[in-house]
């Protein structure tokens, strides 16, 4: 315990927020695996507040004085921390539950927030909020998992007044609850009116990222939009994103990109994901892999670009995920594409990219039809023409033959072939029109397949 | 959860005045009927529920509350259409203001009680068309009415010490009704015979005759009377038992023997005497199925199903019976196009199936896919795909739904409309909800892809219209009459001249579907 408050005093002397946050860690550091236990043992519940007060005063006495109010606030915080540590240690001994840990950690969160609102905690201490928020979320997830394991003991009184069961609450009730508290921290940072250099606004992106993670886990990613909207309303007096630590920027850009991705706005998604890609530490392979998981399908739809082997070199998992599909798209093999998509379906669905990758079939089809066009060769030169012109009137039957072959010999009727071609034209993957009565497709003389050189 | 709009009204009343709107269907008549929709009658008024199981009794009149003078004229004819927005008279507004004025606060009357009473008072005044006749300025405040109710109940409780209210069968004819209920095969529980091995036709009842002539006001009177009885009983049960037993936190065990119960949203922990145990609910389900087949009164049925679901929930009953309640309600809601209620049921079904309970998961997982296509919910679709096992994906209804999904995702309208014409189970009700928008999308495609024209017959066949006339009507409905040209042998559709005619309609048709919109 003495150790803890030496750290506390040092952090205050240096105004080092991260050092201060470390004193509130719910995990013993590797060099001192007994830290939590010794903290717990060094006091008891009747003495704790007095002990803390004494330790804060004795350790910080020779330094710039913490004012009285602040000390009061920190005593409350560390008393709540000591309580939570009690539950964590009991949990390690199998005498407590994650739900209890979550509850006491939540109490600590509330008291810490109160410290900022009522006891004048300074802005340099915000890493404490990061520490508390980060573990609040983790404990909530553990508590939910634990509760769903022992189904039945989660009979909250609230659900008894409902008309139907709410399966989501039952599964993720704690995480939902946690979201409320993270949002309080968000507001706490957002609404600080102090001048920028000593503002809690500097905590905003850390908290936003925590909220994003929470929303994605809750399967309601779209709620992140509300946060972004609130943020943009405050844009004027917010420090620019570029002034924040890189790690926070990468995470933020990644989630912003994925959010656009899920909303099918692939152009915007690509922008943000590329930013994240460029900011990301090149050694952080797992993070790079996460970014590519969404950036590759994005690129496929926006610019029809497929990943190269070199790009995927360091990512064996992504190779397995994307290379077979990319190969089929290149060669215009519809049947193989369908099989590859089916093969990877579980993985794709898990990563929420299935519905996007599926649309890669359009590109495969485009490549197939393009082959037919090229195989058609050139029209005979007319008088006065010097450069050969490709044959632009292609019988539907030729496309049909190609599609039947591409579909592994399955018979596709002419109407369906026309429908597929009409789609190509509608999506601007092909320029021209179908003359149904004559059974031909009339393609544009200039750029029948835009962006592909023919 | 959004409130169910009909809860304030007596069952049956709403359907009388406001025929269930054809929810989700475009007002134009351009879609073709598919087989399963034979019985679908969005515009026909359902027949009235002819039952009137509540004979008045002395105990009943005793229970009616003194002070609620507004209830005193039950026979007042009601002409006002239900759907119409009410203009509240100035005197009523003043009354409401007075009710909430701080100086009239009564510590013994909670805000919720006050609001409920106020709503009830004004609501019944409106019902009776006495909004303008009541002297609102001298009307006792809701606080006073609540206190009066309590006194009356207290008196009633004393009398009930000697004669238990519900012991007498004649008081509660509903009970008897359930005994009258024919139960031919007592060895087989009725719910077992519902789903297993019976065709869809058997499971869905169709309204026998939509044009039953009916004296509106007479029906209305009956309904009003019934409503008041319901309310009084509910209050009696509610208040009487709430004071002596403090609400416990665990799941309760119901003791009510009443088969039917009007749905009321819970604002306080449920009272066991007002909740039916599973044994009774099973009889209720049977009764409701019979009624639905016979009367097809959706607002009544929906209300009853909601109260059943509530009873199941508060007692934490999650078993195969629960599944069948939700399945049946989901099917009925689908048939009536009540997409909001349907969605609530399917959400429950999803987690019930996930618990391993038996039912018809294949059928409903297929609906779920179609539903998410309708609401353009990609997250939902993705989750649904994640839920499916390899074996399930091969089951016909699910495979059909998945094929529909992928056909639409790839813009393959040709395949989509072939699938549309061959939809298993009740999936066609869901498909019908978005077929118009898919037709618009296909038209956009065709107009850009074909030049100079195509035969109208081609549109008819490609977009699954029943006849050329239907196809032409659809085009005309979207201002495309100038694109149709009569050429002695056939009618041509001038795709080359359409430009972006259908693009706007397409875009607005694809805007997100609001699932909260309920009948």
TrEMBL record, chain A:
<dbReference type="InterPro" id="IPR036388">
    <property type="entry name" value="WH-like_DNA-bd_sf"/>
</dbReference>
<protein>
    <recommendedName>
        <fullName>Protein CSN12 homolog</fullName>
    </recommendedName>
</protein>
<dbReference type="GO" id="GO:0003723">
    <property type="term" value="F:RNA binding"/>
</dbReference>
<feature type="domain" description="PCI">
    <location>
        <begin position="250"/>
        <end position="448"/>
    </location>
</feature>
<dbReference type="InterPro" id="IPR045114">
    <property type="entry name" value="Csn12-like"/>
</dbReference>
<dbReference type="Pfam" id="PF01399">
    <property type="entry name" value="PCI"/>
</dbReference>
<dbReference type="InterPro" id="IPR000717">
    <property type="entry name" value="PCI_dom"/>
</dbReference>
<comment type="similarity">
    <text>Belongs to the CSN12 family.</text>
</comment>
<dbReference type="GO" id="GO:0003690">
    <property type="term" value="F:double-stranded DNA binding"/>
</dbReference>
From TrEMBL, chain B:
<feature type="region of interest" description="Disordered">
    <location>
        <begin position="215"/>
        <end position="252"/>
    </location>
</feature>
<feature type="compositionally biased region" description="Polar residues">
    <location>
        <begin position="180"/>
        <end position="198"/>
    </location>
</feature>
<feature type="compositionally biased region" description="Polar residues">
    <location>
        <begin position="65"/>
        <end position="74"/>
    </location>
</feature>
<feature type="region of interest" description="Disordered">
    <location>
        <begin position="167"/>
        <end position="202"/>
    </location>
</feature>
<feature type="domain" description="PCI">
    <location>
        <begin position="338"/>
        <end position="509"/>
    </location>
</feature>
<protein>
    <recommendedName>
        <fullName>PCI domain-containing protein</fullName>
    </recommendedName>
</protein>
<dbReference type="Pfam" id="PF03399">
    <property type="entry name" value="SAC3_GANP"/>
</dbReference>
<dbReference type="InterPro" id="IPR005062">
    <property type="entry name" value="SAC3/GANP/THP3_conserved"/>
</dbReference>
<dbReference type="InterPro" id="IPR000717">
    <property type="entry name" value="PCI_dom"/>
</dbReference>
<feature type="compositionally biased region" description="Low complexity">
    <location>
        <begin position="53"/>
        <end position="64"/>
    </location>
</feature>
<feature type="compositionally biased region" description="Basic and acidic residues">
    <location>
        <begin position="82"/>
        <end position="93"/>
    </location>
</feature>
<dbReference type="GO" id="GO:0005634">
    <property type="term" value="C:nucleus"/>
</dbReference>
<feature type="compositionally biased region" description="Pro residues">
    <location>
        <begin position="18"/>
        <end position="30"/>
    </location>
</feature>
<feature type="region of interest" description="Disordered">
    <location>
        <begin position="1"/>
        <end position="108"/>
    </location>
</feature>
<dbReference type="InterPro" id="IPR045107">
    <property type="entry name" value="SAC3/GANP/THP3"/>
</dbReference>
């Amino acid at each position: 315990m003495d150790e803890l408050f030496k750290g506390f005093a040092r952090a205050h002397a240096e105004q080092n927020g991260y050092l201060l946050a470390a004193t509130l860690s719910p995990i013993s550091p590797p060099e001192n695996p007994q830290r939590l236990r010794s903290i717990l043992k060094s006091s008891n519940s009747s003495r704790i507040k007095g002990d803390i007060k004494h330790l804060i005063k004795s350790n910080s006495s020779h330094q710039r004085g913490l004012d009285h109010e602040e000390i009061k606030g920190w005593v409350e915080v560390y008393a709540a921390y000591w309580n939570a540590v009690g539950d964590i240690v009991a949990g390690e001994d199998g005498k407590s539950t994650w739900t209890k840990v979550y509850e006491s950690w939540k109490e600590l969160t509330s008291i810490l927030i109160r410290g900022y609102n009522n006891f004048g905690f300074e802005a340099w201490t915000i890493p404490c909020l990061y520490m508390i928020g980060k573990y609040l979320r983790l404990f909530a997830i553990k508590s939910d998992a634990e509760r769903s394991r022992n189904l039945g003991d989660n009979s909250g009184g609230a659900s008894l007044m409902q008309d139907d069961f709410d399966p989501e609450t039952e599964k993720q009730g704690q995480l939902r609850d946690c979201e409320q508290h993270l949002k309080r921290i968000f507001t706490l940072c957002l609404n600080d009116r102090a001048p920028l250099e000593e503002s809690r606004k500097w905590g905003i992106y850390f908290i936003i990222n925590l909220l994003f993670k929470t929303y994605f886990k809750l399967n309601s990613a779209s709620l992140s939009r509300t946060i972004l909207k609130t943020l943009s309303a405050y844009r004027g007096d917010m420090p620019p994103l570029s002034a924040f630590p890189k790690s926070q920027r990468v995470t933020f850009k990644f989630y912003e990109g994925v959010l656009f991705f899920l909303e099918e706005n692939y152009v915007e998604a690509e922008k943000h994901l590329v930013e994240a890609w460029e900011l990301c530490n090149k050694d952080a392979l797992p993070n790079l892999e996460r970014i590519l998981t969404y950036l590759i399908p994005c690129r496929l739809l926006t610019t029809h670009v497929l990943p190269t082997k070199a790009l995927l070199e360091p990512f064996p998992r992504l190779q397995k995920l994307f290379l077979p599909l990319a190969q089929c798209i290149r060669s215009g093999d519809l049947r193989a594409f369908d099989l590859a998509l089916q093969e990877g379906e579980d993985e794709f669905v898990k990563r929420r990219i299935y519905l996007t990758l599926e649309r890669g079939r359009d590109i495969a089809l485009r490549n197939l039809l393009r082959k037919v066009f090229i195989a058609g060769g050139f029209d005979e030169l007319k008088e006065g023409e010097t450069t050969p012109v490709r044959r632009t009137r292609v019988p539907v039957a030729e496309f049909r033959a190609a599609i039947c072959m591409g579909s592994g010999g399955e018979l596709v009727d002419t109407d369906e072939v026309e429908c597929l071609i009409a789609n190509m034209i509608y999506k601007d993957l092909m320029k021209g029109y179908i003359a149904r009565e004559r059974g031909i497709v009339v393609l544009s003389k200039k750029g029948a397949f835009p962006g592909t050189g023919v | 959860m959004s409130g169910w709009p009909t809860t304030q009204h007596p069952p049956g009343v709403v359907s009388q005045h406001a025929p269930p709107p054809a929810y989700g269907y475009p007002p134009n008549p351009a879609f073709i009927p598919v087989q399963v929709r034979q019985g679908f009658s969005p515009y026909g008024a359902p027949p009235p529920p002819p039952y009137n199981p509540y004979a008045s009794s002395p105990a009943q009149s005793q229970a009616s509350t003194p002070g609620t003078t507004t209830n005193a004229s039950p026979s007042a004819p009601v002409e006002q259409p239900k759907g119409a927005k009410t203009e509240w008279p100035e005197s009523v507004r003043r009354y409401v203001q007075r009710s909430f004025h701080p100086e009239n606060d009564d510590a013994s009357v909670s805000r919720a009680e006050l609001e409920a009473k106020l709503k009830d008072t004004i609501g019944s005044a409106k019902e009776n068309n006495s909004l303008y006749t009541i002297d609102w300025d001298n009307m006792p405040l809701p606080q006073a009415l609540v206190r009066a109710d309590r006194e009356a109940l207290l008196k009633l409780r004393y009398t009930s010490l000697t004669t238990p209210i519900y012991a007498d069968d004649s008081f509660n004819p509903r009970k008897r009704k359930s005994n009258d209920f024919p139960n031919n095969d007592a060895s087989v529980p009725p719910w077992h015979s519902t789903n297993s091995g019976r065709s869809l036709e058997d499971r869905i009842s169709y309204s026998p005759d939509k044009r039953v002539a009916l004296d509106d006001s007479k029906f209305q009177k009956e309904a009003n009377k019934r409503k008041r009885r319901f309310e009084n009983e509910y209050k009696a049960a509610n208040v009487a038992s709430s004071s002596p037993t403090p609400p416990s936190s665990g799941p309760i065990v119901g003791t009510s023997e009443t088969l039917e119960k009007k749905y009321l949203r819970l604002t306080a922990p449920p009272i066991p005497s007002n909740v039916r145990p599973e044994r009774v609910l099973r009889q209720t389900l049977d009764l409701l199925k019979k009624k639905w087949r016979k009367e097809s009164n959706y607002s009544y049925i929906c209300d009853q199903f909601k109260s059943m679901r509530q009873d199941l929930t508060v007692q934490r009953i999650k078993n195969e019976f629960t599944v069948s309640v939700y399945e049946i309600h989901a099917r009925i809601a689908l048939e009536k196009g009540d997409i909001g209620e349907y969605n609530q049921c399917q959400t429950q079904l999803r987690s019930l199936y996930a618990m391993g309970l038996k039912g018809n998961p294949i059928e409903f997982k297929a609906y779920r896919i179609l539903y998410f296509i309708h609401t353009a919910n990609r997250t939902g679709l993705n989750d649904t795909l994640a839920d499916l096992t390899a074996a399930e994906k091969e089951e016909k209804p699910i495979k059909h739904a998945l094929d529909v999904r992928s056909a639409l995702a790839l813009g393959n309208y040709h395949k989509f409309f072939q699938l549309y014409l061959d939809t298993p189970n009740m999936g066609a009700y869901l498909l019908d909800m978005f077929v118009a928008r898919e037709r618009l999308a296909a038209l956009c495609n065709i107009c850009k892809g074909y030049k100079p024209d195509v035969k109208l017959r081609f549109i008819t066949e490609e977009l699954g219209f029943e006849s050329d006339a239907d196809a032409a009507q659809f085009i005309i409905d979207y201002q495309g009459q100038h694109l149709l040209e009569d050429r002695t042998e056939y009618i041509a559709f001038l795709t080359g001249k359409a430009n972006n005619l259908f693009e706007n309609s397409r875009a607005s048709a694809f805007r997100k579907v609001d699932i909260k919109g309920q009948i």
